[in-house]
Design brief:
This protein is of the alpha/beta class and 391 residues long. It has two domains: 223 residues, Alpha-Beta Barrel (TIM Barrel); 125 residues, Lyase, Ornithine Decarboxylase, Chain A, domain 1 (Beta Barrel), CATH 2.40.37.10. Helix content is 29%, strand content 22%. The protein has ten helices and 19 strands. The strands form four sheets. It has an eight-stranded parallel β-barrel, surrounded by seven helices. A five-stranded antiparallel beta sheet has the order 11-14-17-16-15, with no helix packed on it. It starts with 12 loop residues before the first strand and ends in a 7-residue tail after the last strand. About 2% of the residues have low confidence.
């Protein structure tokens, strides 16, 4: 967790993380999915991919303050980052979505009470063997494939795996879960089909094994659009960071997207005459006397990168056509002033036009730079708005 302020940071580029807003977003989502009569479901905050760029532990601690009682990550390394930050998986369980595939991974997870995903009988055997050797029961979540086609067992195969888990004293079936393939689509028909399949499976399994387990299937889109999918736990990812997964999802009162900002300190300002070339390839030539500011950020930090989803398929064709008709200019902000980027974005440097700034831009002035959160360089310091509140 970074505790430096921007003013005392040794770096000239950093990511400012608004932990207060993250906490408030978690509380807003919980308020949205809970009715006054029913305390369920619990909130599993998904902090995979370095907490969607905010820092895995930073995001988790903020969400815990906002009411999250579970955490979801993709890898064991991410889970260990949370435990190293002081999150005890015995009290606030951490689930690793990707299956563990080595004995060492299983042993580390079991020792730290981290919950593991099982997708076949081989996973059951591997984890149970490690749990038996350690003499510590392992908590597992059985993944059922209801139509995603990625991880998990088909329902008819998952019953046998559940029997193996239930019969093994070294294992505890903590939960059964599935994942929706299209909960953000305009039609919910496929998602409802998956949900019905999952509900039927869970009901039949409870009747067969006779021991309780939790159920979770609702990602951000589903928890917003399908109340019947919320069950015991909702797995919220994108929405916790103030963003909606699709245009189809309803809005959450109090949700705020102001959780993340990449900021850079101006390192050089100079005046260029008309006709001056800027950047690699000399592709940009000034048409007037120009005051140019240099910021030490570039494509290494994620500047100028687009999500693959907006450059592929029908949406990609539409965006390509719009970029030809009305090209978008990459700009940075100094307060409310938009400064256009001049020339190519380099690896760790950009030049911006500050000629028309309402007050002179000088060395040391800070700009906010647009960047995809997940593309932002994870090596950049994360500076927290209120680190004391996360202790």
């Amino acid at each position: 967790m970074t505790k430096l302020s921007a003013e005392c940071s040794l770096d000239n580029v950093w990511v400012r993380v608004n932990t207060n807003t993250l906490s408030e977003n978690a509380a807003a989502v919980l308020s949205y999915v809970r009715s006054p009569e029913d305390a369920a479901p619990e909130l599993m905050a998904v902090v995979k991919a370095d907490g969607y760029g905010h820092g895995c532990a930073n995001a988790a601690l903020a969400f815990r303050t906002g009411g999250a009682t579970w955490f979801g990550v993709t890898t064991l390394t991410e889970a260990l980052e949370l435990t190293d930050a002081g999150i005890n998986s015995a009290d606030t369980p951490i689930l690793v979505f990707a299956p563990l595939v080595t004995a060492q991974q299983c042993e580390i997870a079991i020792e730290r009470a981290i919950h593991a995903t099982v997708c076949d009988a081989g996973h059951v055997e591997l984890i149970s063997r490690s749990a038996a050797d350690l003499g510590i029961p392992a908590h597992v979540h059985l993944k059922v494939d209801t139509g995603m086609g990625r991880l998990g067992l088909l329902p008819e195969e998952a019953v046998a795996a559940a029997r193996l888990i239930n019969a093994n004293r070294s294992l505890k079936l903590a939960a059964v879960y599935t994942h929706f393939a299209g909960a953000g689509d305009s039609s919910l028909a496929k998602t409802k089909k998956q949900l019905n399949m999952f509900v039927t499976f869970c009901d039949n399994l409870r009747d067969e094994i006779g021991t309780p387990f939790l159920r979770h299937c609702a990602n951000s889109s589903a928890l917003l659009r399908l109340p019947e999918a919320r069950m015991d736990i909702v797995r919220a990812g994108t929405v916790l960071y103030g963003q909606y997964p699709s245009a189809e999802t309803p809005k959450v009162p109090g949700l705020n997207a102001d959780t993340f900002a990449l900021e850079a300190r101006t390192v050089f300002v100079h005046d260029l005459p008309a006709g001056a070339a800027i950047g690699y390839g000399s592709e940009f030539i000034t048409r007037r006397a120009t005051r140019a500011a240099v910021l030490p950020v570039g494509f290494f930090d994620g500047i100028g990168m687009q999500p693959a989803s907006i450059s592929q398929g029908t949406r990609g064709i539409k965006n390509l056509l719009m970029s030809i008709i009305r090209p978008r200019k990459l700009t940075v902000k100094f307060g409310q002033f938009n400064a256009p980027v001049l020339g190519r974005v380099a690896m760790q440097m950009i030049v911006v036009d500050v000629t028309d700034a309402p007050s002179p831009i000088v060395q040391g002035d800070i700009a906010t730079v647009p960047v995809r959160r997940l593309a932002a360089n994870s090596r950049l310091p994360r500076i927290l708005s209120n680190p004391e509140a996360l202790m």
